[in-house]
What does this fold into?
Amino acid sequence: MKGILAVLLLLLLVSDAQAHTTCFPPGDLQQWLRLSEGQSPIFTGEIDNDKGDTMQTWLNPTNGTWTIMIVKLNDWGCALATGINFSVHGGLSTEIRDEVPL
It folds into this structure.
């Protein structure tokens, strides 16, 4: 239940983004993000759903495009939303902010 609420909250937060769901084997989606979009993963977190699913945020630091994807048990990677103008705000610790390649 917490996982569903987290995904719903995430979708609400990216309401201005191009929200869609496109699913592929995660390696294929990750390769496409790297080669076609120039994006790299910057954040990964476990979804609290007892299924081993993870959320990943990918970013192209040159043009600010980003993708949020869910990886379900390493079987499917689903792009939930994509967008532009990624920026880091003051709520992140200095250590985390220094790791984001902007």
About this structure: The chain has a mean pLDDT of 77. The radius of gyration is 13 Å. The longest strand covers residues 76-83.
